[in-house]
Amino acid sequence: MINVRRKRGASQRSTVRTHEQDKGRSARRYAEIAAAAHGAGGRPEPVAYATSLGYSEEDLKTVPADAIMTLGCGTPVTRARLRLGEIVLDLGSGGGLDAFLAARRVGPTGRVIGVDATPEMVKRANATAEKSSIANVEFRYAPIERLPLADCSVDVVISNCVINHCAEKVRAFKEVYRVLKIGGRMCLSDLVGSGPFSDAALEDKVWGEWLAVALSKADYLRAIEQAGFQEVTVEEEVTFHMAENDERLKGRIASIGLTAWKK
Ligand SMILES: C[S@@+](CC[C@H](N)C(=O)[O-])C[C@H]1O[C@@H](n2cnc3c(N)ncnc32)[C@H](O)[C@@H]1O
Known about the structure:
- It is globular, with a radius of gyration of 18 Å.
- The model is unreliable at 1-22 and 37-41 (pLDDT under 50).
- By secondary structure, it is an alpha/beta fold.
- The longest helix is centred in the N-terminal third of the chain and has 17 residues, at 19-35.
- α1 (19-35) runs parallel beside α6 and α7 (169-179) crosses α10.
- It contains 10 helices and 7 strands.
- It has one domain: Vaccinia Virus protein VP39 (Rossmann fold, 3-Layer(aba) Sandwich).
- Strands 3-2-1-4-5-7-6 form a 7-stranded mixed β-sheet, sandwiched between helices.
- 33% of the residues lie in helices and 21% in strands.
- The structure holds S-adenosylmethionine (SAM).
- S-adenosylmethionine (SAM) is lined by residues 30, 69-72, 92-95, 97-98, 115-118, 121, 143-145, 160-162, 165-166.
């Protein structure tokens, strides 16, 4: 397994954090983001960032403005080709952008469930749904490693820039496999890294925490297969533009879009 944490030398061990510490820091950071105003804290303006990822302006006009926090790295909801009546699960739903777009696509006979481990995100997304009277979407507080859903209950799982943040990827993918119906699909966008990374990168305020747990593309795909998925197909792969201005990361962080099936 090419986990960048393992590639660090003895001199770096004192800075290695536990997964619990990583999760705690991450949750605090997302709670701060959920509470922040649009474009605050040096983050890019959300609509401009969303269009840079590939969301269309037409699509963005159809969702509540509060949902467009845009913390993702791709457009899994477009690749999922959702149909009317489908039941969709959005892992790490954040402000709810992909969930609200999915809710329009599956229509009133379909349903979307967003799951997120940051309570402030869940509260914010549920408040947005209520304020906008969108009835076929709900957000639940849970870690994706323990999904609050029954076996074989979901047609499609989408996720945008979440699973490579998680400490227990295979466990998360096994949970996705469990809740998908037979014939169901998982459409993901996520970042993958190709290390080794320098100490300075690993200790960076923005990237260090993610680099400490992120898998390479090969290991990420292997984790999906280990969970039982078939026909794992990478449909998109681009270097992640937000990392390109940083010499420590240039060319080493890619955004991938993939689909995998439960047969
Ligand atoms: C980079 S943001 C992406 C948010 C959203 N998907 C988007 O595209 O805007 C990652 C989100 O995943 C959530 N998250 C991270 N680890 C998680 C886990 N283990 N279980 C559930 N949610 C998690 C965070 O709370 C955060 O809202």
